[in-house]
Amino acid sequence: MAKYLAQIILVGVQVVGRAFARALRQEFAASQAAAGARQHSGPQTAAASSISGISLQEAQQILNISKLNPEEIQKNYEHLFKVNDKSVGGSFYLQSKVVRAKERLDDELRIQSQREDSEHKPDT
């Protein structure tokens, strides 16, 4: 009986160990991909994320947008801001997250327009 119990415990430890190792590898790969994306996005985008305290992806998720479309950003911002107003039973915390997300997306739109201006600027 003790022999079978020891075998069951050993198999359980092996299964958990493999699952932990697999999760660790996946987390490492995700971390590497995120680092690559941050590096590829440019220093201005990284600085804007650092200053605002919110990443571009998080801001897009908060305002439920997939592309940086100023009209869609404004529409979703106004809706979420109204819905989360404390006077209608909303949450000030969520409302502040909505404001920060809009600020972050506005920063990104400004950065993109600066990039486009510098790319289309004729060399003198």
Automatic annotation (TrEMBL):
InterPro entries reported in the protein's UniProt record: J_dom_sf, Tim16
Listed GO biological process terms: protein import into mitochondrial matrix
Keyword Protein transport: yes
Keyword Mitochondrion carried by entry: yes
Pfam families with a match to the protein in the record: Pam16
Entries under PANTHER family matching the protein: MITOCHONDRIA ASSOCIATED GRANULOCYTE MACROPHAGE CSF SIGNALING MOLECULE, MITOCHONDRIAL IMPORT INNER MEMBRANE TRANSLOCASE SUBUNIT TIM16
Gene: LOC129338853
Transmembrane segments: none
Sorted UniProt keywords: Membrane, Mitochondrion, Mitochondrion inner membrane, Protein transport, Translocation, Transport
Designated name of the protein: Mitochondrial import inner membrane translocase subunit TIM16-like isoform X1
Localization in the cell: Mitochondrion inner membrane
Lineage: Eukaryota, Metazoa, Chordata, Craniata, Vertebrata
Family under the similarity heading: Belongs to the TIM16/PAM16 family.
GO cellular component: PAM complex, Tim23 associated import motor
Membrane topology: Peripheral membrane protein
